[in-house]
Amino acid sequence: MSDVVVRIVGLEVHGRHGVHDEERILGQRFVLDLEMTLANDRATTSDDLADTVDYAALSDAVAAIVRGKPVALLERLARVVADRVLEEPAVRAVVVTIAKPHVAIPHVLDEVSVTLYAETDES
70-107, pLDDT tens digit by residue? Predict the structure, then answer.
């Protein structure tokens, strides 16, 4: 068996997450990268969407999480996203990176991000 990795890179979603009131009131852009290791490589020979992850539908589900109920920490948001990704039957493990490109701190930087690795209990 070969490891198959499916990536969603640069998913941009407006959300209202953060510790400070202004972040929750105004909201901001979040950028997500998902790297999913599939449980098997069946899709490489079956050519059937049922044997892989539907990245269009999953992008919609993840975007709804980011647009949804606010959390204070990026770490918590990453866990909620990872848990949703791992509900996909074809996914064995996921690496979730969530970036805040316009974080309100008094220093010049490109972004602040959190990366979380999670896998199913069956791994």
Answer: 999 999 999 999 999 999 999 999 999 999 998 878 89
Whichever domain contains 81, its CATH number is: 3.30.1130.10
For the purposes of burial, counting CB atoms within 10 Å of the CB of 105, is it exposed (0-12), middle (13-18) or buried (19 or more)? exposed
The parent domain of residue 113 ranges over 5-119
Question: In b/e form, how buried is each residue of 79-102, taking b as 16+ CB within 10 angstroms?
Answer: bbbbebbbebebbbbbbbbbbbee
The per-residue pLDDT for 122 is 62
Domain count within the chain: 1
For the annotated catalytic residues, the residue numbers are 100
